[in-house]
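Quick one before lunch.
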Amino acid sequence: MTKPAPDSLALLSVAEMAGADEAAIASGIAGFALMERAGRAVADAVSRRGRPGERVLVLCGPGKNGGDGFVAARLLEARGFAITLALAGERGQLTGDAGEAAAGWQGPVLAVAEIRPEDHAIIVDALFGAGLNRPLGGAVAALVERVNASDLPVISVDVPSGVSGDSGMTAGPAIRADETVTFFRLKPGHLLYPGRALCGVVTLADIGITAEMVFGPGKPPPMTFSNEPALWQGQLPRHEAGTHKYRRGAVAVAAGGLAGVGAPRLGARAALRIGAGLATIICRPEALATHAGRGPDALMQIAAADGAAFEAALATRKLSALLAGPALGLDAMAAEVVTAALCAKLPLVLDADALTVLAARSELLEELAGRRSVPTVLTPHEGEFLRLFGDRAPYASGASRLVRARTAATATASVVVLKGPDTVIAAPDGRAAINATGSAALATAGSGDVLGGIVTGLLAQGMPAFEAACAAVWLHGKAGEALGFGLIADDLPEALPGALRLVAG
Ligand SMILES: NC(=O)C1=CN([C@@H]2O[C@H](COP(=O)(O)OP(=O)(O)OC[C@H]3O[C@@H](n4cnc5c(N)ncnc54)[C@H](O)[C@@H]3O)[C@@H](O)[C@H]2O)[C@@H](O)CC1
Ligand SMILES: Nc1ncnc2c1ncn2[C@@H]1O[C@H](COP(=O)(O)OP(=O)(O)O)[C@@H](O)[C@H]1O
Ligand SMILES: [K+]
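Model of the NAX complex:
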């Protein structure tokens, strides 16, 4: 039995956050007390950026997000800030806790159409949060455009107005914040683009909701996480002094012909760097001499002329995991290799050409992967995902990356790594993690081949598939961060020892 994932890394959907609020209220905290603390956290964020006497514009919406804004306005005025407060909607609309918060504000309430953001030093965006249910329109949309054009510091309450907390997506205009103050736990929309970029710095505030209230005994465990080491660090491979190379795991990488000797080698090199004991390239006969003439010398190579020879090669190498895809090719032999790989009883990573070979045949993948008793990991980027699963519901590119990755993982009984600046890792059991390491420096040829090799190397060492994929994505990102711009994919495997030191126990 593995330890459950730490709830501190949980990302809560909007509905789960509403449940957390209810759980807190059921345990005896008044809803208004939560709002009071939320408003105070926002006021504190403003106080850290500004000085008393400065003009602060507080934009309030008609729901509880607006309620937080009214509380912040009251506290900031008491601290000596000069407040302009505008309300999107009618004061009479504000009910419950938000009504109580509005009643505590003694100052004038202006209409949004009258507001000139540029007359202020700081803007608080408390227009819409978890309750956003349609695109911003009318006077509010126009105000949002004026706020964004003002270039003034904006602090958003919970999420930038116009951003979905569940998906990070926008369906119309949205606030571009410098800081977003949110409560208890982050939401997926804080980590998924474009939400992540629109949030600015995210500040997580304690408003009195405790983990015990929300995740205590009898409550469903969280299923969505921020990809941090605490999620998988305990499952990283550990090797005792007496180990030997086969115990550290033997990786094979299925390669193509002469046209693509680089990509599989990047994968194999990464597998060795992450700790696999051996790595062998299985290539077409015409590429064997070229592979043999290239470094590193630790790599081995054998030739296979057809699918049967490939299967035979898999059987002779005491293998622990297989990577198929980088520069595999798209011909009939590549298709045979992919089928053989899916039928072999070996933990498997399918990337690049292997995913394209299966393009628009996701039902074949579902059938073959569904029969496997050992882990399968798919590592598509957006283009490969689209080719494989198409653009229809529930995979349509208009749907959240989190939903699409999860749906694909369940359908294919595989761990799906949907790559991008906000890579999503999803397991067939419903768990998912969103990654935040890395930078645009990783958007370079061969970077994904290295990632495939890292996952394979961790699988070869016996790490469970979801944790292996999460660890690989995080470490790949850290290797990219350490190298920065100027990196090429060849550098990434060499930066893995440094990234590993960050998490070595
Ligand atoms: N107990 C709680 O639930 C807590 C909630 N808090 C705050 O409460 C917020 C959620 O409050 P609500 O559920 O009231 O939701 P919101 O305040 O986000 O929005 C509510 C209202 O806006 C309307 N609306 C949605 N999209 C619109 C659009 N595009 N144009 C015009 N109107 C639109 C909705 O119909 C609804 O009436 C959180 O984001 C957070 O800021 C905090 O006070 C902390 C405690
Ligand atoms: N802007 C970005 N920020 C962070 N990581 C990125 C960014 N763009 C790409 N990456 C990462 O770089 C890798 C690129 O992989 P892939 O698209 O398969 O490239 P290739 O096929 O050239 O190897 C993925 O791990 C992806 O998550
Ligand atoms: K907001």
